[in-house]
Amino acid sequence: MSTTHDQFLSANEAHQEAFSGRGLAAPPSRRVAVLTCMDARVDIYRALGLQIGEAHVIRNAGGVLTDDAIRSLTLSQRKLGTTEIAVIQHTDCGLENLDNEAVLAELEAATGSRPPWPIGGFSDVRNSVRASVAALRSDPHLIHVDAVNGYVYHVETGRLEPVGT
Length: 165
Hints:
Layout: H1 3-18, E1 32-37, H2 44-48, E2 55-60, H3 67-80, E3 84-90, H4 100-111, H5 125-137, E4 148-153, E5 160-163
Parallel strand pairs: 1-2, 1-3, 3-4
Antiparallel strand pairs: 4-5
């Protein structure tokens, strides 16, 4: 087994001893869902002052709006009662200025096929956030489109910048 695996199991033993999440309901208590990047520098719970059980957090490369993110947000609203969505991308993201076509070509060369999913690279983080917010506000599957807001998280300072639409 890997060292990381062993560390995870050891940390989980300590977590179980201090665990305070027993009895939390599945719907998040603050009725908010957050779409953000998987970047390890983004501690979304601390950045937003959230505790476990307060929000749904959907993470993917770039925090970009994908079909799967829309699926998760739709279920979050329709089945678990969330009424707000926050789209949070960040500065110094690996997807910013990424050449989508070059990555697709690289994957095709390495595997013999192109993936069925888009890479999701973008040229400007604020415009990417605006586009995601606009798409969510017009999505027919979502119930609460009036409370969709966008932000840029600054990885160097921890500042959350609202992005107007």
